[in-house]
Structures are given as structure tokens and as C-alpha cells.
Design goal:
There is one protein chain. This protein has 2 domains: 249 residues, Alpha-Beta Barrel (TIM Barrel), CATH 3.20.20.70; 92 residues, Chorismate Mutase Domain, subunit A (Up-down Bundle), CATH 1.20.59. 50% of the residues lie in helices and 9% in strands. The chain has 14 helices and 8 strands. The protein binds phosphoenolpyruvate and manganese (II) ion. Phosphoenolpyruvate binds next to helix 5.
Length: 361
Amino acid sequence: MEFNNKESFFKNLQAGQGKPLVIAGPCSAESEEQVMQIAGALAQQNVHLFRAGIWKPRSRPNSFEGIGVQGLEWLQRVQQTFKMPVTTEVANGRHVELALKHGIDVLWIGARTTVNPFAIQEIADALQGVQVPVMVKNPVNPDLALWIGAIERIYNTGITDIAAIHRGFSSYQKSKYRNAPVWQIPIELKARFQALPVIVDPSHIAGNRELIFPVSQKALDLGYDGVMIETHNRPDEAWSDAEQQVTPETLKNITDKLQVRKVTYDDAELVNRAEELRLQIDAADHDIIAALAKRMALVEQIGEYKKQNNVQVLQLERWKEIFSSRAAWAAEAGINPDFVAELYKLIHVESIRQQTQISNE
Ligand code: PEP
Ligand code: MN
């Protein structure tokens, strides 16, 4: 896929030039008055694109499923009154037709739709021969191929103004996030398609207000092109996603505080210092690999010993002890114990693989 350069996506939104694109607005359009109040407040600040969900994909029936087509008229009023472009979520061909008929400037495809190639293809069919920018959220599950596949189906219609939105991935494990960011997936997407703008949706990643700033800043540090932040005039009373929505005032505090980093060092002295540090990092990595090789040689010896004595490869008590002691050692050394615990999961898998191989020889 050959995307237009990023500036093309941003041009009509009067964004770009090194500044992050800011998309804001409520999770759901609830009433004309609510939409106009929020849009009015956002028009006073640095917001490039107004968002509001009209059709809401909800996990359970009998929740608020969106105000429907009348919301499109409210979005038209936002365009006319505040000269602000608008975006809404489309999940099927009918939504696309209605959104286009009402002149919605940018469409977005939600996480629950990206997972379904039939739904994406139906949307793509409805977009044939139309030029409208489309933003594709990541699928709910951490599957890069599915995300790329959805982008490809939209691209194949002839649309080249496409952006990806990173909104995190659902996970059974409890964590501080509503949807785990799994940063390596969008990083891989960025590496493969360098001209594809990538926007972070910290609201759906965080699921709460406190994490919106740090998640947004981290995304900018990774070279993301924009943020989509759910904003409501009365967040606590919102009909959907109340815990994660912020007021227009808080949004302004967040965007004012966000720092945009330089793409790279622009001074020879800084480059030299970075080179020096990189050489030291290379040396530290050599040490890590040498230590792993030493550990694997010992694992091989113990594997032989277990085999000779006809003892099971997996010794659960020992493994539990390793797992907790290494995390504790990490904490003592001032590094993140969760990271070290994850690392030991990988080391353990490899160690079991090696020993099982020996025991089957
Ligand atoms: C939304 O943006 O309100 C939404 C439903 O998002 P997602 O598809 O990321 O869950
Ligand atoms: Mn939402």
C-alpha cells in the first residue's frame, strides 16, 4: 500500500506541521443541545475534528445504542455553526450511505467492526468511488494482520487518505488499563507503513481520566500524529463511557501540557553523545546474551541429570520460587519486577523446550 503523505490527511483538517491532530467530542451524541454545547467549547480551542458516536456498538443489549440518524443533522449544525469538520463511527454499508449523504467529513471504523472482514468489506463496497478520509481503529484483539487487512480493504476502494487509530486491545487479565495498549503492535504498523498517520485514542485505552495524559504523551514520544480524546460537557452524566470522558477544560489542560518531541537529533554533539550511549548499550546486550548462554548451558546439564534419574522436566515448586525471587531481585535492583517476571516466562519456556528435547533424545 502506498499512502498519500501524512500532510494530505491533515490538510483539510488544518492540522499537521509538526503539531498533533486533536480529535475531541463526546463518546455519544445525546441531544442537539449537548452536541452544540460541547462543540461550541471545543471550537474555542485547538481542536481540529469534532467526534460523536451516533450508532454505538454496545457489549450488552438494553444499553444506549446511539441516537441514530437524527444525530447526523446535529453534526451538520456543528459544521455550519462552528466551521469545524466532524467525524462519526460507521459499522455497515447503510451507516456509510447516511453519513456521506449528510456530508460527514471523516468516517471512522470502530474496534468491534475491524475484527470482522465481512463488515469491513461491506463498508468498503459502500465507499467505492468516494473520496472521504477514513480512520481505522485497531481490532479489539491484538492481531496486527486483521488491522492491516481492514486498512487494505479501505485502500482498495481507491481511498488514500487513511489513518489508523490505536485504542488498545481487550484482555482477560486485569490491568490498570481498560484496553491494554500493547505498544509493539502499532509500532510495527508504523514501521511497515511510514506514510500512514497513526492517532492514539487514550480514552479507550485508559478507561479513566487519570491515564489520558500519560498515554497521550507516550504516544507522542513514539511519533504518533494525533490524539482522539472523548470530551463531554457533563462527563459524569454521560450516557456511555462516563468514567473516561473529560470536560473541554480538562482537554485543554491535557493538550496544552503535551510535548511534541523532535523527530531526531539536530545537532552533531547530541548525535555523538547518543552514539556513545548506543555503544554502551551494545556492550550491555553482549553481556546479557553471554549470561543467557551460560544459563542455557546449565539448563542443559540439569536436563541430562533429570533424564538420568528419570525425573520430570517441569518442577513446579522450583519454578514458582524462581519466578518470585527474580521479580524480588529486580525490585531490589531498581528495575520493574513485572518486566523481569515477563522475561522469565520466556526464559522458562525456552528452558523447558531444551530439557524436553534432551529427555526425548
Ligand atoms: C468510540 O470511539 O466511542 C468507540 C466505540 O470506540 P472503540 O471502537 O474503540 O471501542
Ligand atoms: Mn466511547
